Description:
By secondary structure, the protein is an alpha/beta fold. The protein has twelve helices and 14 strands. It is 42% helix and 15% strand.
Amino acid sequence: MNAENIRFASRFDGISGSAIRExxxxxxxxxxxxxxxxxxxxxxxxxxxxxxxxRELLLDKGKILLQYGATEGYAPLRxxxxxxxxxxFSFTCxxxxxxxxTGSTQAMDLLCKALIDPGDKVVVENPTFLGxxxxxxxxxxxxxxxxxxxxxIKVDELEEVFKSxxxxxxxxIPTFQNPTGRTLSLERRKKIAQxxxxxxxxxxxxxxxxxxxxxxxxLPSIKSFDAEGWVAFMGSFSKVISPGLRVGFLAxxxxxxxxxxxxxxxxxxxxxxxxxxxxxxxxxxGLLMPHVERICQSYAQQMNTMLGLLSKCGGVARYTRPQxxxxxxxxxxxxxxxxxxxxxxxxxxxxYVPGTHFYAxxxxxxxxxxxxxxxxxxxxxRGMALLNEVFSANS
Length: 395
Ligand SMILES: Cc1ncc(COP(=O)(O)O)c(C=O)c1O
């Protein structure tokens, strides 16, 4: 029989793959200035340090690290995550309440595996991170988008949706959100923890950008206000050490974490031991925060340069002014279409991601997301000049 007749699972119905990954294919042109990705700068990847650590680890514990490990994770990393979580995310947990995972992407997948039956409802911010919307869709959940403003998701609307729709989960990025760069206010963090317990909704709190702060005050995590165990916290070392190592973590109550461990057994058995051990060494040796401070200095300059140029960019009606993270979200004047104009921009040599992809229900064609971490100051100046040309000509 012709292989065109393969009967694919219905979970893929209507799912076409990440629009961002499709845009990346357009960008493989030499000289293209990309404001489209979300990668750390190559200058921020600590290759020499990791090489040294990996060599020491392999010489010292090679027979352990090259063997199969526990699905629950590399025990020293679980232990070093405990003080890290207390210090950086202001919540306490035991080592057996935190699970190292293969990028926080896997944490989202495992939470869905543990919680979502086809047809279940999941609340997401409107707009939100495309990658995790796709993960939720693959478990055949119904997405319920709730709008956000400068202070993050609107909690009054959220409560209405909790009350009337009985969702199983809320997926939320509280700090320097992807794609908007916005941060959820302290009051709303407290309120969300309270609503989760009141209405019995699991909160999947995804916080990979928190350490990339260039201004303003740190805020405690939603999980720090969670007395009853409704908040599952996902973290990642992708943006602050290396995305290629694929090390993240999930902190959740024991029963939920156990389901995720069982789910992980059949996903990848365990996260790569060597990569977990490198991250563990990074934490134990106190290398993380000095590294983060270094990279934040240049990211802050890059972001401020882009913000300054956006204020003078033709066709741009408004944009967010984040205090950290990797993204700025902007709106063109009403009637302009950022998805259509992307091709004109790519022809000129600059790219971004149209904002429509981040909205569960589409629309919002006049919005777009800009990333600044992967471009030098000169590239930002040149790229913004090209955007100004295209947008001014079409406004
Ligand atoms: C909000 C958010 N969550 C999760 C991820 C994925 O992180 P990881 O590399 O740890 O899988 C990203 C990556 O861009 C992200 O923006």
